[in-house]
Specification:
single chain; 122 residues; alpha/beta; 5-stranded mixed beta sheet
């Protein structure tokens, strides 16, 4: 299953997240859902409704070291992870057993980031 994870500033709009998603995901495969931190659901919930996808709220406590490809000092200071988008995508796709298929990209307005992860098929 493929999930899009998002990190974003409070001032981000649904358009910011959609732009980041369009940059990160090439459309190969079917998105199973979107994921973001549970304490910052909107505007991701708005995008999930628009796309008719479930939104997976992710608890901001990172219990395992996830194999991230990006590192933001600001994200690490604020959230304890190098990329909120990558961590949310990986967590939604199965955690340490998932893999990133598209590293974090940042929207042109610099307000949102998106990463794509795929869970291991069984």
């Amino acid at each position: 299953m493929i999930f899009a994870g998002f990190g974003f500033r409070r001032s981000a709009t649904m358009a910011s997240l959609r732009a980041a998603l369009e940059q990160a995901w090439d459309g190969d495969g079917v998105l199973a859902g979107l994921a973001t931190l549970e304490d910052k659901i909107e505007p991701a919930a708005e995008l999930a409704r628009l796309l008719s996808l479930p939104l997976i709220p992710i608890a901001p406590q990172w219990r395992t070291a996830l194999p991230l490809l990006s590192h933001s000092t600001a994200a690490h200071t604020a959230r304890g992870t190098g990329s909120v988008a990558e961590a949310c995508a990986l967590t939604a796709a199965g955690g340490a057993s998932a893999r990133l298929i598209a590293p974090r990209v940042i929207s042109s307005d610099r307000l949102a980031s998106c990463a794509i992860a795929e869970g291991v098929s069984t």
